[in-house]
Amino acid sequence: MPDYDFDIGVIGGGAAGLTVTSGSAQLGAKTLLIEKEDALGGDCLHFGCVPSKTLIKSAHVYHQMKHSQKFGLPAVDVPPVDFREISKRIKSVIDTIQKHDSEERFCSLGAQVEFGRPEFVDAHSIRLNGTSYSAKRWVIATGSSPVAAPIKGLAQTNYITNREIFYLDRLPESMIVLGGGPIGCEMGQAFNRLGSEVHIVDLAGQILGKEDKDMADMVMNVMKDEGVSFHLNASVEEVVDHGSSKEVVLKNTAGETTRLSAETILVALGRKPNIEGLGLDGIGVESHRRGIKVDNRLRTTQKHIFAAGDVAGGYQFTHAAGYEGGIVVSNAIFRLPRKTDYTFFPWCTYTDPPLGSIGMNETMAKASGIDYAVWTEAFKDNDRSLAEGEQTGLIKLILNEKEKPIGVQILGPSAGDLLAEWVAVLNGKVKLSTLAAAVHPYPTIGEINKKVTGTYFSPKIFSEKVKKGLKFFFDLKGRACVP
Length: 483
Ligand SMILES: Cc1cc2nc3c(=O)[nH]c(=O)nc-3n(C[C@H](O)[C@H](O)[C@H](O)COP(=O)(O)OP(=O)(O)OC[C@H]3O[C@@H](n4cnc5c(N)ncnc54)[C@H](O)[C@@H]3O)c2cc1C
Known about the structure:
Bound molecules: flavin-adenine dinucleotide
Distance between the termini: 86 Å
Number of strands: 21
């Protein structure tokens, strides 16, 4: 047996890599972690979830201040935003979380942390900063980067992506967002609320392409009412950098041209896997456009090399990266053949209102050709939502032909948190009747989860058949009032 330096080597110190590192090291595997940046934490901490949600909160508070009268409060004349202060707050939140993701912490768990860009020299060894390191097993967890689409003039234009947007030294007066996906919509709404004039452009006929169109359209309508302009079914023909202003030339499906002009362009057109420079071709690790090829145990085309997180091209979320990191630990350290299962995988887009989803939505159910039924409940009928002034949206419960729940979408306040109950119900195969009978505290937004099951059971319980049976057995007298 060859004697390797490490039991496991992990490349990439983001959500996936850190999960594998902490699990492996704490289980007694001699673990090496390599990160190219000078701090651990990955995109989520530095350029993704954490800064975006911090920014969204600032934008939300500012929006509430501007709409204080909606809550019966005096009107407030709010001064313009100083974006440097928002950036400062973002950095302070990151700094606090960074302590959990420090080199010292991982060293205390037993892992060796090295910084730099490694390259595989053979299937078990990498070269880093002039030193060779070998490991019995490797994990590639290098994440993803924004796609720079091949649009005429884009490469010559000074645009921004998620790497720059949280660290601007001033609020742009106007912004064109290329891409109406989760990042484009979250950032578009936040910047519009902070005072930028925002245009969102997408090639598709709807924003948030993974979601049901009716739900995505509701998000779009809220954002439109707030002042965001949308340009759908629009292909970007050209981008021109005029210095202080940038121009985007769009063509619609009828071939008509529109020219937009703004101070800043945010490119949010999707993600590409970070595989450059790793030397994967030389060691037989294959990849496709979306990411490294993996089987359902996350093994690459070299069985002792795993890939997890964004770089594997599946669901691109921090909780997916963490989940996949756990699958790798099971396979690589415990040697258990644990497989990925995304049947009830939840996600949420943090627009206001947010849009959360788990399992199948209607689009997926239709595409799979199954018989399904949809039950809905609106937030305008939830007492707490009314008190909070957040009554836009609804919950959709999708049942299959056996009347078993196969998916839930929630557009409304705290949608991501409301999904937590469905995570337990769907994964635990809890009966809908159990959820319907379980007492929920009043008044809470979470009551909507129970209420939608009530909507499903109601016609069954209060049916003519049941009424007739009760009348027959217990001689009930029937209606006391006829309107
Ligand atoms: C604006 C934005 C908002 C987001 N919001 C959310 C959200 O709200 N919720 C959610 O679940 N997800 C969100 N995401 C997605 C989430 O950030 C990613 O899915 C997650 O970070 C993926 O984790 P990862 O470990 O695969 O990659 P990363 O976290 O990107 O980690 C990869 C690490 O590998 C390092 N690396 C790259 N190449 C090399 C190399 N050659 N050598 C050594 N190290 C290397 C990188 O520097 C990085 O530290 C958001 C993303 C963006 C961009």
